[in-house]
Write a structure and sequence with these properties.
The chain has 16 helices and 12 strands. It has about 500 residues and is an alpha/beta fold. Belongs to the glycosyl hydrolase 1 family.
Length: about 500
């Protein structure tokens, strides 16, 4: 073999080694208790904000905190009460996840299953035993749990009696929850997230933080005060989690997606930067340990005093997260022009991007936007990333054989996974793992529908709650199994 041929072979080998995901990459799927678990009235569980959020035209009003809904009634259907009943199907579901080859399973804790009212001194043992059983089942299949402590989940008692996260007393109740979870589940759980999509408090405040607003109340001030309380609570979670087990990996979680200016008009470019900062403020505090200058000036203009003490400043500074996790479904486009077409179906207001196709629910499909988002986050924070939600909500219809031929989902995921790999392999982004959202069909958080399906596994249930709850593998089930088995090297649909 000539020297040139040898050099080429070595170069090819080095290229091959760099052009692959880490061998310990965490492949898996993601769910949330309020959309998946069910069992709302079992084992002493209390009522939560997500339980009283109905399906139908009143849903958005409730999620925004303007409906004043505190209980269940006979005129609405509440899809989160039963969801798809993981509570009684967890062994079956985990076996299916293991068959796909999951290395990690992202799930969340229903706060009101551990503390039914939220302010009790002692936890509910039945609730703890349920999650312990789930973690043991995952361990049996060599699947790591990635646990979100609070995923749009707040006990209703904390809302009606304390005002939700507007009240700083919730920090103490959250600390108690964290102490219990970190201590009890130390043998099973190493990966944790503090709050799901913490920035959603600005867009759907009742769903995000149990916030309701009174007539004449300054809603923007209330939302940022509640966000401040959650950010302090998140720092406490990091502190407690590392004290209980120094091996714990604790991350933040944000609803991400790059904001594009609709045009190169300077006003559009600046608006996109401003909208991006609304999201980044939350990660700035959790990853850097302090509020950025632009946030401080915003609060000054609002006349908002956070009441920050030196002790709180030290808490934030001394307890940054270990990694940054995020959801990515779509990029966003914004404009100062009133004639730009509105993008529908998303909690984040914006305009339609004329260069991108959209999903059945109007979400722009932008695989390159995932790579752009990953680069933006890593450039800013230099912390490992974790993609904990990504997927396509679509209308899946089983064929005569009960099979869902979801090639459209495979194509969506192919393109996004390739963009993810490019960010790792070509841009050098350190990425811990990828958990596809709604790896099994569950209730849509935004619409309350079952017909907006994301999973590799079909669940027989419709928007009105009818169905057998039978689980069926879709075509994408075997495709994702192959993706995991090859560590992302084979994305083909064959």
């Amino acid at each position: 073999m000539t020297g040139l041929r040898m050099q080429k072979r070595v170069a090819d080998k080095e290229s091959e080694e760099t052009m692959s995901l880490p061998k310990d990459f965490l492949w898996g799927g993601a769910t949330a208790a309020n959309q998946y678990e069910g069992g709302w009235n079992e084992c002493g569980r209390g009522l939560a904000n997500v339980d009283v959020t109905p399906w139908g035209p009143d849903r958005r009003k409730v999620m925004s905190g303007t409906a004043g809904v505190h209980s269940l009634d006979d005129s609405h259907f509440y899809p989160g009460l039963e969801a798809v009943d993981f509570y009684h199907h967890y062994k079956e579901d985990i076996a299916l996840f293991a068959e796909m080859g999951f290395k990690v399973f992202r799930m969340s804790i229903a706060w009101s299953r551990i503390f039914p009212k939220g302010d009790e001194e002692e936890p509910n043992e039945e609730g703890l035993r349920f999650y312990e059983d789930v973690f043991r089942e995952l361990k049996k299949h060599n699947i790591e749990p990635l646990v979100t402590i609070t995923h749009f989940d707040c006990p209703m008692y904390l809302i009606t009696e304390y005002g939700g996260w507007k009240n700083p007393k919730l920090i103490e109740f959250y600390k108690r929850l964290c102490q219990v979870l970190f201590t009890r589940f130390r043998p099973y759980v190493k990966w944790w997230l503090t709050f799901n999509e913490i920035n959603m408090i600005l867009h759907l405040p009742f769903m995000g933080a149990g916030l309701e607003f009174e007539e004449g109340e300054d809603r923007e001030k209330a939302k940022y005060l509640a966000a401040h309380n959650e950010l302090l609570a998140s720092a406490w979670a990091v502190k407690i989690g590392h004290e209980v087990n120094p091996e714990n990996m604790i991350g933040c979680m944000v609803a991400a997606g790059e904001f594009y200016p609709y045009s190169p008009m300077p006003e559009d470019v600046f608006l996109a930067q401003q909208k991006e900062r609304e999201n980044l403020m939350f990660i700035d505090v959790q990853a850097r340990g302090e509020y950025p200058a632009y946030a401080k000036k915003l609060f000054e203009r609002m006349g908002l005093d956070l009441g920050m003490t030196p002790e709180q400043e030290a808490l934030l500074k001394d307890n940054p997260v270990d990694f940054i996790s995020f959801s990515y479904y779509t990029s966003r486009c914004v404009s100062t022009r009133p004639d730009a077409g509105e993008q529908v179906g998303n909690a984040f207001k914006g305009v339609k991007n004329p260069y991108l196709k959209a999903s059945d629910w109007g979400w722009a499909i932008d695989p390159l936007g995932l790579r752009t988002t990953m680069n933006s986050l890593y450039d800013r924070y230099q912390k490992p990333l974790f993609i904990v939600e990504n997927g396509l909500g679509a209308k899946d219809v089983p064929d005569a054989d009960g099979r869902v031929q979801d090639d459209y989902r495979i194509e969506y995921l192919q393109r996004h996974l390739q963009a993810m790999k490019d960010a790792v392999e070509l841009d050098g982004i350190p990425l811990l793992g990828y958990t596809a959202w709604g790896c099994i069909d569950l209730v849509s958080a935004s619409t309350g529908e079952m017909s907006k399906r994301y999973g590799f596994i079909y669940v027989d249930r419709d928007d009105q709650g009818h169905g057998t709850l039978k689980r069926l593998k879709k075509k994408s089930f075997d495709w994702y199994k192959k993706v995991i088995a090859t560590n992302g090297e084979d994305l083909t649909n064959e």
